[in-house]
Amino acid sequence: MSKPKLLITRRWPKAVEEAAMEHFDVTLNDKDIPLGIEDMRDALKSYDAISPTVTDVLNAKAFKVEDVSCKILCNYGVGYSHIDLPSAQKLGICVTNTPDVLSDCTADIAMTLMLMAARRAGEGERELRAKKWGGWRPTHMIGAKVTGKTLGIIGFGRIGQAMASRGHFGFGMKIKIFSRSQVSAELLERYNAEQFNSVETLLRKSDFVSLHCPGGTSNRHLINASNLAQARPELVLINTARGEVIDEVALANALENKTIKAAGLDVFDGEPNINPNLMTAPNLVMLPHLGSATRETREEMGFRALANCRAFFEGETPMDKVA
Ligand code: 8YV
């Protein structure tokens, strides 16, 4: 039997590209640039399987194709809000993601941003490199203490739990949660956590809030001008989830007007373009979507995407099927 034709839309770590070639007739994107809508339409007609990433256009328009040959989109990444699931389903295309393997590294980046924003690490480094550091003094670049503070977590899936673990066991933080579904008593007890039923309450009661919910239309601007106005002035807001979860203009205003203390962002609405309001916002640390960017995790993501794809062509239900 001939191997299924698999398009890998962005370059993967070598070990996983090699593994892919053992089981699939693989096409790599040698230029490693995101696929546009027309490229994606062509790909849907030419390949048995596609492994896309967050940078690929898979909206409803992209799925407007006839004679589709693609049977599975084995997404390289846990978030799949860039894929219009109803359109994929309508064409009978299976969609999978790569959960678990990136939870630790994404929580590590959230922690990095939280510490950097609280302790003004970005500002400090910029001052030093600009040769503007005049030396130590008791009142120099005073930040916020992290240990023992209250950490609000929005979205309590695997990454949210990994964040709670770091905050609670590593930094003695009090954990508060906002999640649309009821968090089990066992999990709440594990982190000595309390669940609130509104984002406003969480913002009012937390020193730090970290976002770990999915993106997409249902969570678009979950953090907005009206609920940011409820936050404590000490609030440090962290986003490693998806850019659209925060109204970025409202965040920039809150930082400018000091209604909150600081923020740390790893993801952006419309990335890699950054809203100009954010570029000039004070007390903001920004990273270029590095959540899962470690060798170990990027390899595991590839192996997980391949495992899903192989299971599908072996007639099984892939373990990470989302549609
Ligand atoms: C990925 C992520 O690198 O997995 C996710 O959802 O946000 C990132 O860590 C990216 O999405 C790859 O598609």
Write a short abstract of this structure.
This protein has 323 residues and is α/β, with parallel strands linked by helices. The chain has helices at residues 14-23, 37-46, 85-90, 103-118, 121-129, 158-171, 185-190, 199-205, 225-228, 248-256, 276-279, 295-313, and strands at 5-8, 25-28, 49-51, 72-74, 94-96, 150-154, 174-178, 194-196, 208-211, 236-239, 262-265, 284-286.
Major β-sheet annotation: 7 strands, parallel
Order of helices and strands: EHEHEEHEHHEHEHEHEHEHEHEH
Number of E-state strands = 12
Distance between the termini: 27 Å
Strand content: 5-15%
**Considering DSSP H and I runs of 4 or more, what fraction of the residues is helical?**
25-40%
Report the bound ligands by name, code or SMILES: 2-keto-D-gluconic acid
How would you explain this protein's 3D organization?
The radius of gyration is 21 Å and the shape is globular. 35% of the residues lie in helices and 14% in strands. Strand 11 (262-265), helix 11 (276-279) and strand 12 (284-286) form a beta-alpha-beta unit. The strands form 2 sheets. Strands 8-7-6-9-10-11-12 form a 7-stranded parallel beta sheet, with helices on both faces. It has helices spanning 14-23, 37-46, 85-90, 103-118, 121-129, 158-171, 185-190, 199-205, 225-228, 248-256, 276-279, 295-313; strands at residues 5-8, 25-28, 49-51, 72-74, 94-96, 150-154, 174-178, 194-196, 208-211, 236-239, 262-265, 284-286. The chain is of the alpha/beta class. Bound molecules: 2-keto-D-gluconic acid. 2-keto-D-gluconic acid (8YV) binds next to loops.
